[in-house]
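Running this now, will post back.
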Amino acid sequence: MVIDSLIVMYAIVLHSVVPVRSEPREGAEQETQLLFGEVCRITETLPRWYKIRNEADGAEGFVDAIMISPMTDEEYTAYTAALAASHARVKLPMTYAVSENNQQTIPLTLGTRLAGYKDGQFSVLGVSFRIDSAAVAAEPLVLSDTALMQVMRFMLNTPYLWGGKNALGMDCSGMTQTVMSLFGVSLPRNASQQIKCGEEVKNLKQAKAGDLVFFDHADPVSEGSLPHNCAGDTRITHVGMLLDSERVIHCSGRVKIERIDERGILSTERQGYTHHLAGIRRML
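Update: finished.
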């Protein structure tokens, strides 16, 4: 592939959030998002659009060509090495970085990776940025009830957004992927992929805070469940995270905490079961 007379295979995101769409058009469904500093592989070029594959989680789709910046082989090699050597991520819903190059600010959202981070500074393609160290988890968080609640309290009431994975809008698997990244665990993008990770937990009695719970389309109970036309469909369509054996935090309409038992999620808002429990996996 030739772009501006250079052979280019990779690109980097230099915007806060970039939508990745199912088709190469503005009105197409958003499949996922790329965050600042993420690297993607360009697999196809079209007029105005690139088809890409996210290097971090393998998610694929189409992005507007002006929203990502192609990298040379040397830039890609140096930058990915810096990423691999750094565990730092933004741990607040939103913060700002300031470019040492032109003093411009850029908003960064929860989970954004920071290459070469040290003492409130990180670097992208030779440009240094300043950031409030209080907004950064320089190392993976250690799982505990306190650490989990500190992260989750920032997410509560974030609105549901299909394909979203930032603090202004996220879907269920975007939430679990982002949260787990703060604890040093890399997950694929979708719930149907995430259930294949980690270790199986047999039931809620054996579960602990931080375990992921997965749900399918089957009716949780014969009555009082969420109306749908998917009875018998056991595809994994939803995921949440346990706070304990009786409470789950998940994104359905918004990020919220609800009751859970062996049947599924019991919603006070819907006055019944809304999701059928299909599996529990331990990632940490």
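The chain is about 15% helix and 40% strand. More later if anyone needs it.
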